[in-house]
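Hey, resending since the last one bounced:
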Amino acid sequence: MVAKRRFLFLQGPCTPFYARLVDRLHADGHAVCKIHFNAGDAVYWSGGDSIAFRDAPDHLKDFLDRIYRDLGITDQILFGDQRPVHRPAVAHGEVFGVRTHVFEEGYFRPYWVTLEREGVNGHSLLPRDPDWFRVTGERLPAAPEPAPFHAPFRVRALHDVAYHLAGLANPLLFPGYRTHAPIIAPVEYAGYLKRFSWLKMIRRREFSRMQSLAASGRPYFVLPLQLNTDAQIRDHSRFEHMEEVIDYVLESFSRHGPNDAVMAIKNHPLDMGLSDFAGEIRKCARRYGLTGRVEYFEDGDLALLLRQAKGVVTVNSTVGMLALEMGIPTVTLSDPIYNLPGLTFQGSLDGFWPACDQPDRALFEAFRKVVMHATQVNGGFYCRRGMALAAENASRVLTADVSPLEALL
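The structure tokens again:
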């Protein structure tokens, strides 16, 4: 019989996912409490006990200590380990014997979410030893087929709007709250409206351009852009923004890339359109003598582009794992969980262009089996069926004495 736990919920995704998860934990007899940091947190909570934190961020550590002690908290649950309201909890919970469970978007998508103890991405407890993955992967069965679901972007957008509309009450109800987002919601929404309207007009053209490059026979490398607002860039890389990445990659490509090769740069599908990447790429191409050798795509089928690619350069995007799965030589400019000898190129970017080492397929299969077993939960955050699946499957991990990864270690 599983011992009853006392869960403390911190911030989650801007959806009713936490409410679904709480229902599941309550059904198993576990106690739950939630800290509201802003009005959006409160709007999306229907799980019972809650406490509002209205002070300045520098008072949060003492506030958490009192809650851990007074409520006998055994576990805390949060979405993303880099938010300012989460960092004190992640750093200090262990002192009180509190287990930390971190949700994040799935390492493998679209039907998975990530759930790890203590940290995710650059803070993951996954080892960095390829031999450990080989040995451990041999002991595991193939990853199960996930239960599928459909999560329309409009549903995610509606939840996000509702969450931020509630935030209009923050100055009155939560005067000490400071958002972790670098872009305020109205600017973000305006950018999305403009860019998505434009994408509808150019989608067919971009797809045709992408098909032409893939069928041309000309060698090309792919750089998938990430979001400037992503914690993967802001907190887990040495770059400040993607414009810096573009300049760095194109400068290296101009000096060491094959003379007949093209650099294909693909924008992120959820980019807000607030940066002029096309203009920045044109300037860099002129600066480094690459005019005619750089193709920029605002939209298109990334899988189509990757299939004929000679190599992929990424900071730490999950696209890197897709490239490895497809057997494409890949180099990372940061240190994601898949940056392992035998998978990604381990030298400098300058050395990657002529080398283009193929990833070890057997190692990748072992890596995938381990990551799926140890950190991935079938489900999603943004639609009813996805949330139901995630709540059901995550509850078993949250209440287990030993996490799947800890059992392997």
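The domain at 185-366 is CATH 3.40.50 (Rossmann fold).

Sorry for the duplicate.
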